[in-house]
Every structure is written in structure tokens, then in C-alpha cells.
From TrEMBL:
PANTHER family: GLYCOSYLTRANSFERASE (PTHR43685), GLYCOSYLTRANSFERASE 2-LIKE DOMAIN-CONTAINING PROTEIN (PTHR43685:SF2). It comes from Metapseudomonas boanensis. Gene3D superfamilies: Spore Coat Polysaccharide Biosynthesis Protein SpsA, Chain A. Residues 8-122 form the Glycosyltransferase 2-like domain. Transmembrane segments: none annotated. This is Glycosyltransferase.
Length: 245
């Protein structure tokens, strides 16, 4: 039996005392324990750090608590010290099922150095009630409406980050999809696995959907992936959402 890969889990947080326990407990309860936990805190002023130190110090390899320049900057700090073969990003208000890492280790390939693995995502409310299920496949022909998967479902080799580069901290909301656009331009394949993560509604991109999509289109045009005027893509998305209603 081949050795299981090592995972670097980066959790970026700021004043996250409401949900951080659930997120980190879902890491602690993994059936596969071959991981390093890296917590990048933006200088929280609530009880976030206290919750981490009281309940999760034993599983935390690195914790940095200081002001940052946004989520991209926080992720970059984590990437600099990550030593695992694969990097996972866990939002501080999201969580995983216990078999999450085990499933990924079974299906992924540690020998594949240039790839973005992604899975499905269950959207939930504050009480963890299921609201929707995102289980679509990536298609380069549909980049005009997005990647069709949630970025935090991605499992990415450290070598792929070294190829594509760090997150652009100057991008405010679409910082994750900007990185994926650059990966696409670098010829990185996107491959779907069967793992599923849970994501609470109400994050930054969820609260500012229109702005997030507009920024995504702007970055896609910046990277010369989409070439028509931005208004056409925005109109297309609004039409799709109207039809879905």
C-alpha cells in the first residue's frame, strides 16, 4: 500500500469566534491524521485565539496572529510555511466530514505535480441545514459564468502553487478565482474527485455576489480568457439567474 500524502491545511480567520470551533473540530476529527494545521489570524480582537489555544493547540503546527492585507495575503503567509504535498484551504466558518482527507488521499495522485483537484460543496445555513448542493464539472467553455465549483473544495499540490505563484492580494473578492484563472492559463488541468465540503452562506463573496462576479469577469478579461465587453457576461449571468427562478 502506498504511503498517504501529507496535507497542509491553511485556515485564515479574523474575529471568527462564532464558527472557528466547528471548523477546527472537523480537522481534529479526521479519520486520516497525516496533516499539518496552519492558522493565519488577522489580529482578532474577540475570543478566536482563546478558542484555538484552549481546544486545538495540540493539532496546530503554526499560528500567526497579526494584521494582514486581506484573505489573499493571509493565504500567502500560509503557503510560505506549508510543507505538505497538498495544500487545502478551510474557511473559518466551514467544515469537513470526518472522512474528507481519507477520501482525497485515496483518489488523488501524489505523483501528479501539476493539477487542481476539486470536489462538491454542500451549502448550509447557521444550523447546518442543507440549502443547496454544488456538484458540477469544470468546463473551459463555460468560464464566462465561472468555474462551477467552490474554490475551498480544491486540493492543490504545493508544486502547482510554485508553478502558478501566490495569490494576488490586490484582488479583493475574486482573489481565489483570479488564481484559478492563472492556473488555467498555465495549462493546469482541473480534475473532479468525490469529496464534499460544507460551506456556510454569508461569506464575503456570498454577501457581494454581483461585485464578486464583476471582479471575476474583470480578471478573466485581464488574463485574456474572456474577450468580449464585460457587460455581455454580466447580462448573461443575470439572464441565467432569472431563468433559474
Amino acid at each position: 500500500m502506498s504511503e498517504k500524502p501529507k496535507f497542509s491545511i491553511i485556515v485564515a480567520c479574523f474575529n471568527s469566534e462564532r464558527y472557528i470551533f466547528d471548523a477546527l473540530a472537523s480537522v481534529k476529527n479526521q479519520t486520516l491524521q497525516n496533516y499539518e494545521l496552519i492558522i493565519i489570524d488577522g489580529g482578532s480582537t474577540d475570543g478566536t485565539i482563546g478558542i484555538i489555544e484552549k481546544n486545538f493547540s495540540a493539532i496546530t503546527k503554526h499560528i500567526i496572529s497579526e494584521k494582514d492585507e486581506g484573505i489573499g495575503d493571509a493565504w500567502n503567509k500560509g503557503l510560505k510555511i506549508a510543507s505538505g504535498e497538498f495544500v487545502l484551504l478551510l474557511n473559518s466558518d466551514d467544515f469537513w466530514p470526518p472522512e474528507y482527507l481519507e477520501s482525497i488521499a485515496t483518489e488523488s495522485s501524489a505523483t501528479e505535480k501539476k493539477v487542481v483537484y476539486y470536489g462538491s460543496t454542500t451549502m448550509v445555513d447557521d444550523n447546518k441545514n442543507t440549502l443547496s448542493f454544488i456538484d458540477k464539472k469544470f468546463s473551459k467553455n463555460l468560464l464566462c459564468i465561472g468555474f462551477r465549483f467552490i474554490h475551498t473544495s480544491c486540493i492543490i499540490p504545493k508544486s502547482t502553487y510554485e508553478l502558478v505563484g501566490q495569490f494576488d492580494k490586490n484582488v479583493r473578492i475574486a482573489v481565489d478565482t483570479d488564481w484559478l484563472l492563472r492556473a488555467h492559463n498555465a495549462g493546469v488541468p482541473f480534475k473532479k474527485l468525490s469529496h464534499n465540503n460544507f460551506m456556510r452562506i454569508g461569506g464575503v463573496s456570498d454577501k457581494h455576489k454581483d461585485r464578486a462576479f464583476s471582479e471575476y469577469i474583470s480578471r478573466a478579461r485581464h488574463h485574456n480568457i474572456l474577450k468580449l465587453p464585460a457587460i455581455l457576461y454580466t447580462t448573461l449571468m443575470k439572464t441565467i439567474l432569472f431563468i433559474k427562478k
